[in-house]
Each structure stands twice: as C-alpha cells, then as structure tokens.
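Hi support team,

I submitted a single chain yesterday and got back a structure, but I'm not sure I'm reading the token output correctly. Could someone confirm the output below corresponds to the sequence I sent? I've pasted both exactly as they appear in my results page.

Thanks,
R.
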Amino acid sequence: MFHVKLPGHDAIARQAGEHLVTHRVKLPRKVVERPIRQVVKRLVMALLVLVVTALIVYVDRDGYTDNSDGPVDLLDAFYYATVTLSTTGYGDITPVSDGARLTNIFAITPLRVLFLIILVGTTLEVLTERTREEWRLNRWRDTLRDHTVVIGFGTKGRSAIQTVCATGLKKEQVVVVDPSSKAVEAATAEGYAGIVGDATRSDVLKRAEVHKARQIIIAPQRDDTSVLVTLTARQLNRGAKIVAAVREEENAPLLKQSGADAVITSASAAGRLLGLSVLSPAAGMVMEDLIQQGSGLDLVERPVVKAEVGKRPRQTDDLVVSVVRGHRVLGYDDPSIGTLQLTDRLITIVRATPGAHVAPDIRPMPRA
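Hi R., thanks for writing in. Yes, this is the structure output for that exact sequence:
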C-alpha cells in the first residue's frame, strides 16, 4: 500500500498510525496550513459574514416586513440573513422601503457573493486537493532523469548532499530516502524531494526512480542495511554509480561484491584523521580543509585541456594529485603516465573561494 503525500500536508500522514507500513513521496514546496485549519478558518469567516449581514438588516429593520407577524426582530434578522446568503429566499421577510432595497443591492448582495465564495471555494479545494497532488507527483516522476538518490539523511547523507550540491547539482535533482518521517521532513524543508520508507525494499526504491538515477549515495545507520540497499539498487540500475558508507572496514568487501563502485569506511577514516592530527596538527588541518567542500582548498576532478596535452602532471598550472586514465587512477609521479592525453582526467587541489577564506598555513595552530 502506498500513500502519496506532498510536503506541507502533514495532517494526513499523522492520522495514519505509525504501525502501518507506508511509503510516502514528499516533494519540496512552501509550507501551507493544514486542511482542517483552513476549513475552520473559512467557516469562521462565513459566520462573520452572516453576523454582519444580520446586523445590517436589524439596524434597518423598519424597512423590512414579516408576512407572518409584521415587525422584524433580531431573530428575524438572522433568519433573513441565513436564507438570503444561502440563496434560499423564502420571501416571507422582504425589504419594502427604498433604503432597505438599496442596502440589499450595495451591501447584502456583495456579502452573499462573498459568503458563497468562502463555502464553495473550501469545497472545491478539498475536492481537488488530492487530484492536484497526484498530478504534481506524476509530473515530477515524468521529468526526473539522471538524478541523485541519497539513502539516509543522517550526518553522512546530509554532508554528502551538501558536497555534491556545492559542485553545481540542483536540489531538484536530489531524492532522499529515509525510514524516519522527521528526517524526510528536514530534507524537504531544505528543498529536496523525500520518500519515507525502508530502502531495502525494491518498491520503495522504485518510488525514488532509482532505475533512472545517475548516482546513488548509500549512507544508512547500519552496515547490514547498506549491503541490502546496495544489492537492491544495483539490481534495479546496472549503470548507476553507487557509493556506499560502512562503519566497519571488514564489511567493505561485502559492499563491493554487492555492486558498490566505491566504499567509504567512516570509522577508520575518522580514526586515521585523528591519528594524523596527533602526529601533525598542521597536516590534520589541511586534511580537514580538503574534506570540507566549498571552503579553503578543495579536491576536484576535471578533464585535461588541449593546452596541457603532451605535458607532464607537474608542468600544469594546477597542483595535480592523480591522473585518471581509463579505469585506472595513477599517482602524479607514476612513470607509466608519461605525458597527459586529451582523454585523461586530473584530480587537482584548487582554492575554492580565493580571498574569502583563510589559508590553512596562516590559521592558528592548535596547541599540542
């Protein structure tokens, strides 16, 4: 069972019990009021219009006549306002004076129109809301191509998205899958589409259009979940680039056998950075600066330009770390590189924002 839900409409999701297995697609949009609150607000507005109409009639009661008992009292004024605004119009209470008829033309009639707009508008909005959301969801699916699917919106998943988006990826091209509705709400609040569900299930990944994705980032909380998600994702999409994260290094081979193109061991990577910072605080600062995308120094991959063809890696203007040739990643000093070719790609260290950030070599050193 699938329950389609767009961000900003939380009432329907909260009414469904947490024990029910639902896979909800949330698209980023502006926050709107809950449907119940909208209906209550419009009912209050309609009642205010009714009261104002009744008071207008009561103030001008001498210009009206009641066919049953003659004079018009406060109850008759509310009765007349009700049947008039609802366009029922029994005709038992009618304006007879010129002033009362002018009041009906210039005051009662606009109030009647406003009353109908409030009630009919609320009814139409409730009836068309589901159709509008279904149309929006279908349009999103039809236009989604070569996007990035992120499994898990925790610390790792959020940082991965921020890094990828810093290189120019649009937020509309990112889909987050997480079993926590709060995590998905946080993702949609930042402008990403989100799906609440278990990513180990193929039907949930199909909701994220994984079969049309260009790259998949797998960053759940558990290593066994990473393995299952990788297996499922690779089965659905043979050509996508899959990058997965694990906590324990011993699980990395399982992920590669499951179909991951790259595996990042978060625990050992953090440990190595800690050890490096102990041995050399300056080197630790440089590594931390390289890890933080968009500030200070960044690692970037770019193609070789024509002016660099025939040169050695050290003869380029940029600081080359490695050369990507075919499916091999060669160090800058690897003798097999020879000279650069037009089909090569360079992994270089560049300054992300010149002049806007402090260079690592002039930042204050941490105390030993």
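A quick pointer for reading it: The radius of gyration is 33 Å. Let us know if anything else looks off.

Best,
Support desk
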